[in-house]
Amino acid sequence: MKTYLKDYFFLTLGALIYAFAIEGILIPSHIIDGGITGISMILNTLTKQPLGAFIVAINLPFIILAFKKLGIRFVLATFYSILIFACGVTVFGQLFHGHAVIPDLELFLAAIFGGLILGAGVGLIIRNGASVDGTEIMAIYATKKIPFSVGEIIMFINLFIFTVAGFVYDWQHALYSIITYFVAYKTMDIVIEGLNESKSVFIITDYSSEIGKDIMEKMDVSVTYVDAEGGYSGVKKRIVYCVISRLQVQKLKEIAKNIDPRAFIAIENVYEVEGVRVKKRKI
Predict the structure, then answer these.
(1) For residue 202, with 0-12 CB atoms within 10 Å meaning exposed, 13-18 middle and 19 or more buried, which class applies?
(2) 151: Cα separation from own chain's centroid
(3) Residue 72 phi/psi, 5° resolution?
(4) Disulfide engineering: 204 pairs with which of 153, 233, 253, 264, CB 3.0-4.6 Å?
(5) CA separation for the pair 36, 75 (Å, rounded)
(6) Closest to 36 measured CA to CA, from 145, 119, 136, 176
(7) Which strand ranges, in their side-by-side order, compose the sheet holding 264-270?
């Protein structure tokens, strides 16, 4: 129950942040988002009908599609997020009446900060197991019919949306919309993956015990030994594996190279680490 409450709290917060970015920054500057929200914003401009109604109506078929593919939990969380987002744009729309939160905000600043706030809101939603845009769901199903990846299909859809925006608004605002989309995309990555990026390290060496012991003693980092076999040589070896912070990378390299200058070291990014760290034994 605690997990569900936490998830839905952040889904609500993310949807309201997203709605604030749309109504408080982007709409007053005639800048649009990508995906279903972008289509809804264009239709809202052309017809003057409620933006929230378009968001729910256009997303609904894709939510139904997601039921088989992505499961009931995802569908319920997504439907909830879209409803809160739609209510949010309605409330903020009444509150701001088409005026920006910061009066006379330059288009470039509106594109940057709108993208930052928008990306933070959508990132919170995705991080907590939901979506707020049916474009990706549509793309997942479209990959079965056409020879393109999900990412490529989304890119084509958004390219079409921003092209239409150029005719509905003007090309300057359409180009600023692309900047907003790019900033939002990068911000989403940071929110979803986190700022505390760690590194996983694999060390292949003939001196695994010595290197592992030094890492544990000098860096206070736990290591794991993995039995392996060389593909060409067929020689049995033990790989030293550990997870460290970015600031510890250079120190670890020095330890490994001081013991074995020929050690093979592979370092990868790790965006999230969970679990209990094993403490060293006291003898």
Answers:
(1) middle
(2) 13
(3) -65, -40
(4) 264
(5) 16
(6) 136
(7) 224-229, 236-245, 198-205, 264-270
